[in-house]
Structure formats: C-alpha cells, structure tokens
Design brief:
CATH topology: Rossmann fold
Oligomer: single chain
CATH architecture: 3-Layer(aba) Sandwich
CATH superfamily: NAD(P)-binding Rossmann-like Domain
Radius of gyration: 19 Å
Number of helices: 10
CATH class: Alpha Beta
Shape: globular
Largest sheet: 7 strands, parallel
Helix content: 40-55%
Order of helices and strands: EHEHEHEHEHHEHHHEH
C-alpha cells in the first residue's frame, strides 16, 4: 500500500549510491515516482533498472552535474515532462574531501566544494520551487552533524554544510507563505560506501570501525535504511515541521570525550587520524 497520496514525485540529487540510492529505493518502494541524478553517464543505470524491475516506471535516472545550473534546470524540466509535477526535492549530492589542515587547502578547492555542496543545492531549490509551490511540497537538504560540532581537518566541508543548514532555515521562513516545508537531515556516522572506502584505506580497519561505532551512544553506526526512513517521515508524516535540522546521530554530539590532541602518543595520533572520517 502506498504511503503517498498518488501521484507523488520526488527528485533526489546524488542518487546513484550510498544514502542517495537509499532514498530512491525507499521512496519508490513506498509508491512515489522518483527522478534521481548523478554526474557520471552510467552511474545510475543499475539503480534505475533495479527499482523499475520491482515496479514499472517507478523511477528515472538523469545524468546531471549538480555544479552546472543549466543541467539542474534540465533535470527539473525532465521531471515535469515525465511525471507532471514535483512534490519533494532531496538535495543529497555532495562530497567530503580528504582531511587536511587549512594550510593545505587551496582557495580553488574550497570554491569547487562550495559549488557542489552548497550552490548546487541552492540552484536545485531555486529551479524546483515554482513546481513545489503548486503542490505545497517539501525540500530536504542533507547536511551533516559536523556542521554543528565541527570536525578535525575539515574546515572546507564543515563550512559548506554549516551554510547549507543555515540556508535551510532561511528558506523555510521564505517559503512558509507558499505552504512549502524546508528541512534538513544532519547525519553522523552512517555506514555508507564512503565509510567502507575509508576502512579499506586505513592502517587498522578493525580499530577504525570500532572507533566509528563507539562515537555514538548506541554503540553502532546508522544505516542507509534508517536515513531513508527519516527522510520518508519528514516528507510524509512531519507536516507541522519546517526549518528543522534533524540529527541522525544516535547522540554522537552528547556527553564529554577527549578533544585535545596535546600530549597524545604517535600511536594514538594515527588512530585518531584514521577514525576521524565522519559522516556523509
């Protein structure tokens, strides 16, 4: 039985893997039609085929570089052409660069990350809103817990996600008069392919995995399915919620922990470097 009042159309940016693919699968499984994008020409075809095998014409993959406004406009236009409306936009596309100090980041690297993590979401909202206002739909921006608590050697990423969270709140104010809700999800440690890549590259994968799990009060990382269920709740059930940053963190931001790197041993420093791969 569909969770949506049919028809319901959702756009997911960065929907070919990780949490993005989880949003695509979950919304389609619950009865929505989903249009999702990724940068690579063939990145999304396997997900599209899988979802449409379960329910014919449930989703559509569109190649789109989220840093190119004209391609975002084409994504929006293709969605309306295909399904006739837009009810939800999930801005998931983004990247986390390797950890390094501000001395090692170039200004051009920061600008490129702003284009992807922040300006791309701004453009998607801008071009989708004329359609979302017609359906009194909603926007979900995928931010990060580190936008609130900070992160070691991640100044550029934290800045982009902090700005995305602030943008969410400001847009929620503006769009309330049109009946469009705008919310954010800020994941902590959710186990995604990005986390697996970090483990594969770590000097001690088992120790890194244990540190990642121990960062949460519940003693484990979140799942892609849990992230998707939260997005589904915000889109369908949380109709009196707007301008809210929803933490998906199992309490990682709570309580005390060792923060200072002063006086730690070389072994501890290596462990901290490995284990400080947080989030989306």
């Amino acid at each position: 039985m569909s969770r949506f009042q049919s028809p319901y159309v959702c756009i997911v940016t960065g929907g070919s893997s990780g949490m993005g693919a989880g949003f695509v699968r979950t919304f389609a499984r619950e009865g929505a039609n989903v249009v999702f994008c990724a940068k690579g020409a063939e990145e999304g075809r396997p997900v599209e085929s899988e979802v449409n095998a379960a329910r014919a014409d449930a989703c559509l993959y569109v190649q789109c570089d989220i840093t190119k406004p004209e391609q975002i406009q084409a994504l929006i236009a293709r969605t309306v052409e295909k399904y006739g409306r837009i009810d939800c936009l999930i801005n998931n596309a983004g990247a986390h660069p390797p950890h390094k100090s501000i001395d090692e980041f170039s200004v051009d690297e920061f600008r490129a990350l702003l284009d992807l993590n922040l300006i791309g979401a701004f453009a998607a909202c801008k071009f989708a809103l004329p359609h979302l206002r017609k359906t009194r739909g909603n926007i979900i921006n995928i931010s990060s817990l580190v936008a609130v608590i900070g992160q070691l050697y991640a100044t550029t990423y934290v800045a982009t996600k902090g700005a995305l969270t602030a943008f969410t709140k400001a847009l929620a104010i503006d769009e309330a008069e049109h009946g469009v809700r705008v919310n954010a999800i800020s994941p902590g440690n959710v186990f995604t392919p990005m986390w697996q890549e970090a483990l594969d590259a770590a000097t001690n994968p088992a120790a890194m995995r244990a540190e990642g799990e121990a960062a949460q009060l519940l003693g484990r990382m979140g799942t892609i399915e849990e992230a998707a269920k939260l997005a589904l709740f915000i889109a369908v059930e949380a109709t009196f919620t707007t301008g809210v940053d929803h933490y998906l963190s199992a309490g990682a931001e709570l309580s005390y922990a060792r923060k200072s790197r002063i006086g730690i041993t070389d072994i501890e420093a290596a462990r901290l470097t490995d284990s400080n791969i947080l989030k989306t």
